[in-house]
Every structure is written in C-alpha cells, then in structure tokens.
C-alpha cells in the first residue's frame, strides 16, 4: 500500500498553495492512502503559530489542517529550529506559541519517515515528473542563491540525510551553483557544508556544464569536489536512481 | 548572564555564552562546575575539539555530528555515544558545547 509524506514550505498566506496541499491530502486519505506525516518547514512553520489568523473571505487553513489531522490520524510536525527563526517558540502557550495539535519535531523524524515513504509531495508543488521510484537515493536539488533561506534549510536536510547514512545526492543547478563558490560577501551561512566531505566522506555533489558556464565558474573555484553530469546522466540520476527528489 | 571572577558574561536564554571570544580556560572550568563536571584531560580533549570544530565549520555540533566528527578526528574508541556520555552524562553535545563557549546546538538536528 502506497504511503505518502507531505512537505509544506509555503507561507500560510499563500492560499493557492495551501489549498492545493489540503486538497491533495484529502483526496489521498479519502482514497485509503496512508499519509505518514505532514512536515512544516521553511515559511510553512508559520502554520503552527498559535496566533495565526486568516483574512475574512478565505478559509482558515490552520483549522482545516487540524481537522484533517484528527480525522485521518496524521501527525502535523513542525521543524523546531526553523520555527524559532520565524518567531515560533515550539511550546504550548503561555511558554511558547505552538498551536495545539501541532507537534514540534526535527529533521530526524522527517528524514527517517522520508526514507520509508513511497512518495514525497512538496508544496509549493513541483511541476516536473516524479522519480520512477526505482532507485534508493534521495536527491536534493539546489537552485537558489546562497543567502536564500532555502539554501540553508536544504543544506540542513542533506546533512541529516547523510548523518543518518541514507544514500543521497546533492545537485546544484542555476543560481544554486553559487552555494558552492567562495562566498561573495562576508556572510557564509553554508560554511558547514564542508563538513560533508571532511567528516562524513560524502562526495556526491553534482552540477552540469551549462550551469558552470552560465555562472562563469570553473570546477576549481568550488569549495567541494563536484562531478559534472551530462543532461542524460542528470536525468538518469533524478528519474531512475532516485527514490525521492527534494527541491530547494 | 554568567557571573564569574567579578565579571559578567552575556549568555543566551539557555545560559550558553553569547560571545565565543570571551571564553577562557577558567571560565570553562566554572561552567563545567555548573554542569557538575570536574574537568579532566579527556574532558578537555573533547571541549578543545568542539572549539576547533566550531572555528572550522561555523556550527555547533549536535549529537550525531559530534559522534561522527570525534570518530573521524580522535578515533573510533572515542567517537561513540558511550564514551562521550561517560564524560558528559547530561548530553555530550549540549554540555561540551556549553563548556566550550559555543552556541547551543540546533534542537531540530
């Protein structure tokens, strides 16, 4: 029986994405599919705020998630560390502002659930083909510039996957390649990525020749050992060798 | 806030030192005392190691990372939770980083 994991990274005021996620979750549950967990990450952590309100004329998506969670017994998990960066103290009021019905958790829970799930649904939804589910690797795709929050949130997920010894791959495309270049400013929230090869002997970093060329970067300018894939090899990695593809 | 030797040291709400550079050996010994730990050479080895780790990677190691990093750099017989818990019974990552003057390791990781 197919089981699912939902990853919500959209801000609650993104009603379209919020409704899309709920719609799909309800449909899956109504069809007897198992949803193991709904994990709130990035801006999505704000769904768990005790003080969250929705404007009139729009549905209260927080209440809707809570009802869904009760009806189908699906845990709503919010990442405690990212939550604190959005002003959410993951304790029940008055000590914190975690809404009742949400559970403060960590990447450990998300990643170990992901390793067992058949399908990951990421919101905002990714409009590309899902992997064929034939491989066992978890592939992470990074295509944002280094100071974008999803760059560090995505790095934390990769670190968790690697420290749990899950087969993983990190693919840097487009602007994402700058995450691997020497920092352009004094700020370097991604410095800890060098611990992947140094401490964990992890070297599955990939990019494409196009990406390098568009950025005007050479492999030698990157701070990690990166392998250049052809379009065919990249497709092989993402559609055949991967069980899940997570995009940041 | 920590009060030590007639001086005040700013901390976060979990009593972790706010400024890495204000750290000193006597201050570390004082924090260890607060943690009910008497510093010995094996304790120092781990505390110094997490300080180096922080300088190198700019992040405070949580347990899983700490075990792996100690294993890699100080050897297998030290890179396991049993050894590290024998030194820091209330949580090696939490206690060693506090004594070392690092920020508290991320909860979620």
3D structure, described in words:
Chain A is built from eight helices and ten strands. Chain A has helices at 15-30, 61-72, 80-85, 107-116, 149-163, 195-200, 209-215, 231-241, and strands at 3-8, 34-40, 76-79, 102-105, 119-123, 137-142, 168-172, 205-208, 226-229, 242-247. In chain A, the strands form two sheets. Chain A has a five-stranded parallel β-sheet, with helices on both faces. Chain A has a five-stranded parallel β-sheet with strand order 9-8-7-6-10, sandwiched between helices. The two termini of chain A are 28 Å apart. Chain B has 109 residues and is mostly helical. Chain B has one domain: Orthogonal Bundle (Arc Repressor Mutant, subunit A). Chain B contains five helices and two strands, in the order ββααααα. In chain B, strand 1 (2-4) and strand 2 (7-9) form a beta hairpin. The A-B interface holds A 79-82, 84, 105-108, 156, 159-160, 163-164, 188, 191-192, 194-195, 198-200 and B 56-59, 64-65, 68-69, 72, 106-109.
């Amino acid at each position: 029986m197919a089981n699912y994991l939902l990853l919500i990274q959209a801000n609650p005021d993104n009603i379209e994405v919020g409704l899309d996620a709920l719609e799909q979750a309800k449909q899956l549950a109504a069809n007897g599919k198992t949803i193991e967990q709904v994990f709130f990450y990035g801006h999505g952590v704000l769904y768990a705020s005790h003080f969250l309100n929705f404007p009139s004329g729009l549905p209260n998506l927080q209440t809707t998630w809570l009802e869904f969670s009760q009806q189908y017994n699906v845990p709503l998990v919010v990442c405690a560390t990212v939550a604190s960066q959005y002003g959410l103290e993951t304790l029940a009021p008055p000590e914190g502002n975690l809404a009742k019905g949400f559970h403060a958790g960590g990447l450990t829970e998300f990643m170990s659930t992901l390793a067992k799930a058949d399908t990951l649904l990421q919101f905002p939804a990714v409009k590309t083909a899902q992997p064929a589910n034939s491989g066992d690797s978890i592939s992470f795709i990074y295509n944002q510039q280094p100071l974008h929050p999803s760059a560090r949130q995505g790095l934390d997920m990769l670190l968790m996957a690697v420290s749990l010894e899950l087969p993983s791959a990190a693919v840097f495309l487009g602007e994402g390649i700058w995450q691997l270049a020497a920092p352009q400013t004094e700020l370097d929230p991604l410095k800890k990525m060098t611990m992947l090869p140094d401490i964990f002997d992890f070297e599955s970093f990939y990019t494409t020749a196009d990406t390098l060329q568009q950025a005007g970067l050479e492999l030698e300018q990157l701070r990690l050992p990166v392998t250049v894939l052809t379009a065919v090899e990249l497709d092989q990695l993402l559609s055949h060798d991967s069980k899940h593809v997570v995009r940041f | 806030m920590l009060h030590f030797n007639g001086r005040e040291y700013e901390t976060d709400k979990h009593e972790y030192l706010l400024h890495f550079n204000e750290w000193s050996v006597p201050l570390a010994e004082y924090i260890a005392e607060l943690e009910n730990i008497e510093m010995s050479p094996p304790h120092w080895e781990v505390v110094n190691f997490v300080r180096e780790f922080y300088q190198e990677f700019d992040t405070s190691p949580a347990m899983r990372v700490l075990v792996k990093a100690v294993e890699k750099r100080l050897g297998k017989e030290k890179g396991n939770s049993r050894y590290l818990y024998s030194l820091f019974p209330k949580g090696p990552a939490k206690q060693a980083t506090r004594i070392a003057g690092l920020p508290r390791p991320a909860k979620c990781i």
